[in-house]
Write a structure and sequence with these properties.
HAT C-terminal dimerisation domain-containing protein; HATC_C_dom; RNaseH-like_sf
Amino acid sequence: MHNKDSKRQCSKIEVRTKLNRIIFFVRLGTKNNQIVQVKLKMSKMKTIHSFSEQATELLILSTSLDPKDVFKLFSVCNICNLVKNFYSLDFSEQEKIQLDYELQHYELDVVKAPDFQNLSTLAELCQKLTETGKSNIYPLIDRLIRLVLTLPVTTATTERAFSAMKIIKTRFRNKMEDEFLADCMIVYIEKEIASKFTSEMIIDDFSSMKHRRASLKISKS
């Protein structure tokens, strides 16, 4: 029973991690491009499936902090479950107990305070807590709000990365290794940033890594 709970907890933490940063791990050790494409499709389907229940639960519980409509969705129980199920590594056991009491005072103080009645987003709430100094009175709630704000709002990044993989990993590049593929994908996805790098900048950076017998820089005469 303990192992089941541990596995479930690890699974939920993994979902939360996936939502905060997209991690791609694809095995490309086959010469048959069709098999690679099938594996990529299966990998994508599994990722979407793993997001369904737990990611939905994460987003639903997160809305309990939303100040929209005068904190209509506020729930002490849901917020405690949010920390217990998805942010257990960010709070100690003592802090989890303390959070329950902090939320009860927060409900009487902040939720019903006139200054907080017209807020509509979590970002505005976080800013207002800082401005009024209540972030120091409710440090655990402030920490949780900041953690929730790091969640991406869409899966556009995921879709863009899979599209990039389809373009980069062609049948002419079926022997490309994982590390090189990951590097190519970063350059392709972040092309706006990569376009700002010049050849001279790259040469200078490569040259400064270690001392070389021959100079990589072309001397200007």
